[in-house]
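Q: A reviewer asked whether we had any structural model of the full assembly, not just the individual parts. We don't, so I'm hoping you can provide one. Inputs are below.
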Amino acid sequence: MEVDSPEQLQRKQSTYLSFDENFEIQKEVYRGQQYSQIYFARLHCMRALLYSLVPNWKSHLPVCTVLGLEEGKECIIVGTLYKHMKLKPCILDEYSKERSVAPLVKPHNFIHQDDYLVLEDESGRVKLGGTVLSPSVYVTGVVIALHGKETSAGAFFVEDVLEAGLPPQIERQLKSREDKYVVFVSGLSIGSSSSNPLLFQLLVDHITGHLGDEEEQGLAAEIVHLVIAGNSVEISRGLLNGQNLASKDQSRLSEPFKELDIQLTQIAASLPLDIMPGSSDPANFSLPQQPLNRCLFPGSATYNTFRSCTNPHCFELDNIRFLGTSGQNIDDLTKYSEAKDKLDFLESTLRWRHLAPTTPNTLGCYPFTDRDPFLIDSCPDVYFVGNQEKYETRLVKGSEGQSVRLICIPRFCETGVAVVVNMRNLECHALTFGMQFSS
Amino acid sequence: MATPPKNIEGFYKQKKSNTSKSKSSNSTKHAAATSGSNIAQPPALVSHGGSLDLEDDFDEEQQVLRQFDMNMEFGPCIGIPRIDRWERARRLGLNPPKEIESILKRGKVKRQSLFGGRT
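A: Here is a predicted structure for the entire assembly that you could use as a starting point for your response.
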């Protein structure tokens, strides 16, 4: 066997900038405020934006508030959508005297053909009619502009819709770049019965260059960053029933973290990594989820390449902007609206310029008073969502030359698939790990 | 949500011409409420602190602040201290009147909006 060649492969590097301060809540103080404050902040910012877009859309029509609607007068109104859903679970259903035939166990999707949309601003709300606006496509919390007129029944007949559209994007110089890859993985679910530790070890070995010949190691050396998009551990439900744990159960509780930390230490020793919390991780429930505590990672947190990040997570590598979540926002859209595929949901959130429009209605979020941190001001180059069923990707073009790579990252414990993005051209491919034992 | 009536003053009781401002201590107020006839009295206005809420809040400053609270342009007033709401309005570019800031900074007025703690 050949002795290792004297020249060592150097891993490529990128400059990293984090934009997570927007999602941090350490400075927030809870003074008993309600969610009306965050809705006001959202409406104000989006309305100002839509007002600036209306002249290019239909400049001849007057813009008015909901209270200022006059019957038969064609105009444009801007407000927050509210979708009345017949099947949406309501806490009062549990207390109603006559139990309906429909079971209290929730279906996967709450859409019903009788759902209707209402537009609301501070002055009032109006029911929306007409066939242009399909309730199944929209969710509560989206701010849009509508062209139409008030009918005699008091509803607003919609003739046309204006969404905010993709936010402005900063031009990136992509042509003179070299191949540099970013790996995305999510849903490791260490500690669950379905996760195979060998698959994750294979991933770690591949990224750190411990697998394969020189050529493959050369490819691994071009990986500059790893992002773990949520659900890295899964704690068995039996341990979380609120009872005091026996000492042997306590060690069972911490085992997934120890295992994860061992793997992350191997990774952090080799390249920068970002770990985001997900719905099954020990972080706060409501969005924005705060970074996982460093004490969970005694080994890997000592490395400066280890970064515990918020969910949603926004960062720049070599001036390429990445934005994404661990999946709760898209999963909630799946429950309350419909689209052809997950990428359509992803694209919708970009067109509505809001990461999670269903917050705080059906998805928990912190009651911010002065801002809505989920508004997307600057179009990312790569927009990802973790913990989805399968790997999907699409390149979306905006009306002003924006170009975004949308990525659905599948759950690694179920699929063994990680996603690799080339920063030179934003092309994307899957990295699949599997174990086949010949009989 | 119900649209607010055009005449905001209809919400508040009109100023009585011979009402005296109650600056007396708590004990005096209690005595005033319970002494007198046995006829059923309407329940006294008691706020959280247990003290009777008999102040009339009708001077100029309070009126200005109340108008600021009720102004829908600056968003909901419940659950957020007045100064924070003013700050938010300023940051969002809504140009709230500067005199509100000076009244609030002077410190002798209620921190919460007129609904503060009473909804």
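A: Points you may want to mention in the reply: DSSP finds seven helices and 17 strands in chain A. The mean pLDDT of chain A is 91.
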